[in-house]
Amino acid sequence: MKVANWANYPIVDAEVRSFSSPTDVRERTADWNEYIPRGLGRCYGDSALNGKILSTLKYNRFLDFDTENGVLTCQSGISFEDILKVIVPKGWFLPVTPGTKFITLGGAIAADVHGKNHHSDGCFSRHLISLDLLAADGTTYHCSREENPEIFWATVGGMGLTGIILQGAFRLKPIETAYIVEESTKVKNLDQLYPMFEESMKYTYSVAWIDCLARGKNLGRGILLNGEHAGHNDLKTAKQKANPLTIPRKRKITVPFFPPSAIMNPFTIKTFNQLFYAKGKTGQHVIDYDQYFYPLDGIHHWNRAYGKRGFAQYQFVIPPKNSFDGLVRIMEKISRERMPSFLTVLKYFGPQEEGMLSFPTEGYTLALDFPLFKRTFKFMDELDEIVNELGGRLYLTKDSRMNGEMLKRGYPRLEEFLAVKGRLDRNDQLHSLQSRRVGL
Fold first, then answer.
1. Which residues contact 156 (CB under 8 A, 6 or more apart)?
2. What is the DSSP secondary-structure string of 209-231?
3. Closest CA to 356 of 297, 417, 402
4. Packing angle between helix 190-199 and helix 320-336, nearest 10 degrees?
5. Neighbour count for residue 429 (Cβ, 10 Å)
6. At 290, which helix (H) or strand (E)?
7. Is residue 244 within 8 Å of residue 88, measured between CB atoms?
């Protein structure tokens, strides 16, 4: 069958098998020389693609929920969407979430996902108590900071290359309501945004949308969105107050087919950016968690908007000392060469994470979506040179074309990771298209 991840590039012919118990895995993979585990496929590139794919989606049960202390234990194939349906009405929330709830717990661990609160709460691994890993030889390891710690820190952020993540136990965040107090601020340019972003570190959640095609005095203009979980006293309407831990149901929008790829071009994206910026308002609002954390989840198959050619995500982080000059250089290059990004999102990361291949390290991170034009990959190679020069690195979960040298420069614990993988996967069975490309 044809399989692609969220960016619809690349597309592979793959044999996909599922398992519903650990004993199934050996049987399902016995005749495979290599394979990769995969959940909901919301990574953007080829890190969960191979000619042989082991799907975790049928291994998706809740195992334990300590509602008093906020500790949840689940099998790896369960989605964040299903977790939220259970925990929010009980007064708990995910400690860290990316911009979609359509990911699995196993995927969150394998990518060591981050969110709008990394500067305050770190990556998902900071809240992970333990995980169970099934190695390629059939051995199961219970891993935590105290038990098999090397395997634990290789697996978080390890892109599924150390084994099959069977389950995880993690701490939740207590909440009074299912709403967020959002403070939005329109900013004229990067000169204005940068000090405001520094100030916004006092908020739990902070993110900025940027108009990537604005130039000159408007370079880096955007909208800064800070947020905190709303308390009972923050709620505004009678309906909110009557059901503080329940959010209203929304009508779903669907992109039903792939439009022509030419629709995503500098003119249309520039027009969208201008309208989005003009519509933005400065002020405080109370919105439900879906609106704040998952605005694009309300549009099913929004990835189809890029056409059948798909798109490429590019997310980098650069250290604080180089961040302002680096962001200016990259934003100027994007606007000068008219390489449009439909979604351009800026966040700040806190201190370096402990995972051997965890992406966040302290500094600014910018995520970009580039339609696949003939010159897209060449342009991204040129961005690599700037990121390298500034001491930055790229996010494996978003990558579809980085080379092995870029990986080596960005991840100083790479050899340590490879040593652990070598011990766990002696027959070199666990591989993705990405791992072969970058030498993992």
1. 109, 110, 112, 123, 124, 125, 128, 131, 355, 358
2. EE-TT--GGGTT-EEEEEEEE--
3. 417
4. 150
5. 17
6. helix 289-293
7. no
Enumerate residues 6+ apart whose C-beta is below 8 A from 209: 222, 223, 225, 276, 343, 344, 345, 346
DSSP structural state of residue 243? S
pLDDT band (50, 70, 90) for residue 262: low
Count Cβ atoms within 10 A of the Cβ of residue 299 and give its class: 0-12 exposed, 13-18 middle, 19 or more buried. middle
| Contact call for residues 328 and 23 (beta carbons, < 8 A) | no
What residue type is 178 in one-letter code?
A
Long-range contacts of 67-72 (CB under 8 A, 24+ apart): 67/92, 70/171, 70/172, 70/173, 70/174, 71/129, 71/169, 71/170, 71/171, 71/172, 72/169, 72/170, 72/172
What distance, in Å, lies between the first and last C-alpha atoms of the chain?
26
Residue 128's pLDDT is: 98
> What DSSP letter does each residue of 315-377 carry, written as one string?
EEEE-HHHHHHHHHHHHHHHHHTT---S-EEEEEE-SPPSSTT----SEEEEEEEEE--TTHH
Distances (CA, A) of 190 to 162, 223, 239, 333, 364: 41, 11, 39, 14, 13
C-alpha span between 89 and 178 (Å, rounded): 8
Residues 12-31: pLDDT tens digits? 999 999 999 999 998 999 99
| Residue range 310-328, pLDDT digits in tens | 999 999 999 999 999 999 9
Lowest mean pLDDT among 83-92, 293-302, 385-394: 293-302
Q: Whole-number mean pLDDT of the chain?
A: 94
What percent of the chain clears pLDDT 70, i.e. is strictly above it?
100
Q: Give the H/E segment covering residue 155.
A: helix 149-155
pLDDT band for 259, please (50, 70, 90 cuts): confident
Indicate the length of the chain as a whole number: 440
The C-alpha R_g of the chain, in whole angstroms, comes to 21
DSSP assigned state of 248: P
Q: Which residues of 160-176 are buried (b: 16+ CB within 10 A; e: fewer)?
A: bbbbbbbbbbbebbebe
105-136 pLDDT, tens digit each: 999 999 999 999 999 999 999 999 999 999 99
All residues at 6 or more sequence positions from 278 whose CB lies less than 8 Å from its CB, including other chains: none
Question: Is a pLDDT exceeding 80 seen at residue 265?
Answer: no
Q: What are 358's two structure tokens? A: 């965890």
CA–CA separation, 351 and 118 (whole Å) = 9
